[in-house]
From TrEMBL:
Residues 1-23 form the signal peptide. It comes from the Bacteria. Keywords: Signal. Residues 86-181 form the Ysc84 actin-binding domain. Pfam families: Ysc84. It comes from Shewanella eurypsychrophilus. This is Lipid-binding SYLF domain-containing protein. InterPro entries: Ysc84_actin-binding.
C-alpha cells in the first residue's frame, strides 16, 4: 500500500513538474522567435523589460474575445505573471492564435503596466493559416507584418507591441481593447 501511495505521489509531482517545464519551454521558444525577427531583436538589448504571451487565442462572430497568459520580465529576470483579455465589437468572423510581446522602454512604462490593471489599444487584423498579415493601431501606432517579419514600430507611450501569427483564419474590422492584469512572482 505504501509503495502504491509513494508511486502515485511521484507521478503527480512529475506531472506538475513536467507541466512547469513545458510552460518554461513555451516562453523560451516564444522569446527566441521574437529575438530572431529583424525588427524586434534590438528591443531585447534596450528595453527595461517586457511582457510575453506565448499563445493568445482569439475568436469572434460579431462579438469577439481573446485571452492569453503571460509572464513579465524586468531586464532578463522573471518578475511575475500577467493575463491578457480582449473584447471586440464589429465585423469579425473566425479564430486565430498568435504570440504577443510588449516591450517597456523605461521604469515608468513598466510600472504603469505592472501597477495592477492596465488597458490599451484598438486593432484590426487578418491572419491566413500560419502566415499572418497584421494591421494594428494602438500603442504601436499604425503597422503591418507578415510571419516573423514584424513592422517597424517604435515606442509609443513607453511601450512597443508586436505579434507573431501562429495560425487560424480571422477577418476583423472591429473596435477592441486589450486589458491586462499582473501578479508579482
Amino acid at each position: 500500500m505504501n509503495k502504491f501511495i509513494s508511486t502515485t505521489c511521484i507521478l503527480i509531482v512529475s506531472l506538475f513538474m513536467s507541466q512547469a517545464a513545458i510552460a518554461d519551454e513555451s516562453y523560451a521558444e516564444t522569446v527566441a522567435n521574437f529575438k530572431q525577427a529583424n525588427d524586434t531583436h534590438k528591443f531585447f538589448d534596450n528595453a527595461y523589460g517586457y511582457a510575453i504571451f506565448p499563445t493568445v487565442g482569439k475568436g469572434g462572430f460579431g462579438i469577439g474575445a481573446a485571452y492569453g497568459k503571460g509572464r513579465v520580465f524586468k531586464g532578463n529576470g522573471y518578475a511575475g505573471d500577467t493575463s491578457l483579455t480582449q473584447i471586440s465589437i464589429g465585423f469579425q468572423i473566425g479564430g486565430q492564435a498568435y504570440s504577443e510581446i510588449i516591450f517597456f522602454k523605461d521604469a515608468k512604462a513598466y510600472n504603469e503596466f505592472t501597477s495592477g490593471s492596465f488597458e490599451f489599444g484598438a486593432q484590426a487584423s487578418a491572419v491566413a493559416i500560419t502566415i499572418g498579415a497584421n494591421a494594428q493601431a494602438g500603442t504601436t501606432g499604425n503597422s503591418s507584418s507578415a510571419g516573423k517579419s514584424a513592422a517597424k514600430a517604435a515606442y509609443i507611450n513607453g511601450m512597443a507591441v508586436y505579434t507573431l501569427a501562429k495560425g487560424g483564419l480571422m477577418f476583423e474590422a472591429a473596435l477592441a481593447g486589450q486589458s491586462f492584469t499582473f501578479e508579482e512572482k
